[in-house]
Amino acid sequence: MKGQEWYQAADVAEEYDSKRFSQGGRLIDEREKQAVIDAIAPMEGKRVLEIACGTGRFTVMLAERGADIVGLDISAAMVQQGRERARRAGVEDHLQFILGDAARLPFPDDYFDVVFAMRFFHLADTPASFLSEMCRVSRDQVFFDTFNRASLRTVYNWLLPMGSRLYSDSEVLRLLHGAGLRLDEEDHDFILPYGFYRSIPDDIARRFRDVDVSLGDSVAGSLASVSYWDAKVE
Q1: What's a Pfam family in this record (predicted)?
Q2: Full-prediction pTM beyond 0.70?
């Protein structure tokens, strides 16, 4: 997986949220959380697995809304941040964080109602195997996001030390079919790449976001840098 050693470093885990979801990055956090809520709701009593849960921003949010959720991550430092977040939110008894490899999930077939992964597939070196594992342990729904090839993300990617794996719509559809999944819904967003929003103050970012949404609506998402894929197990 791209950047695996970097991702597991303690100092990266400690600063992860503050660097990505402060200033204009708050808009990204809000949008991603809403995408997860829209996909999984109603979540009361659902058994959910989050792959690559990181610092637990989704895991804790879903626990607060009644999901029976497990967050899995390969980084001990990230998992520790997640546990601290759960403790501050008062839901540490309502979720579980475990260390694990997304390529070999330590669960039986059909164990969860929903399996999802955010900010994961752009780092995946073998996306087909990861998606197949997600499908194996889900009895109903798999949800994830990708960064898109036909977008400004392509230019932004050149500036990143690790880069990102970028996907076309047709590639995602092939991956879904190969994993035994059927696409149920899709959504596309953010013509301007994430790095742009994170670099400017929140009030200015919101003005750009209004323009971004308007442009996205007018071009039907064809230039979107991010896509959300909601699939059902066949």
Answers
A1: Methyltransf_11
A2: yes
Q: At which residue do the structure tokens 């794996």 appear?
A: 165
Residues of the domain holding 109: 4-233
**How many Å separate Cα 224 from the centre of its chain?**
16
Name the H helices within 53-150.
Answer: 57-64, 76-89, 127-137
Consecutive sets of 10 residues in the chain, 234 residues long: mean pLDDT of each? 54 65 88 97 95 96 96 94 96 95 96 97 93 98 93 62 80 97 96 87 93 78 88 96
What is the tally of structural domains in the chain?
1
Verify cis geometry, omega within 30 degrees of 0, for the bond prior to 193: no
Q: Which of 52, 51, 60 is nearest to 87 (CA)?
A: 60
Q: Which two tokens stand for residue 199?
A: 């670099």
Q: Residue 6 corresponds to which tokens in the numbers above? A: 């970097």
CATH of the domain at 79: 3.40.50.150
Q: What is the distance between the alpha carbons of residues 34 and 30, in angstroms, rounded to a whole number? A: 6
Q: How far is CA 184 from CA 51, 116, 142, 192, in A?
A: 20, 14, 10, 26
C-alpha closest to that of 67 among 37, 40, 46: 46
Placement of tokens 């909601």 in the chain: 230
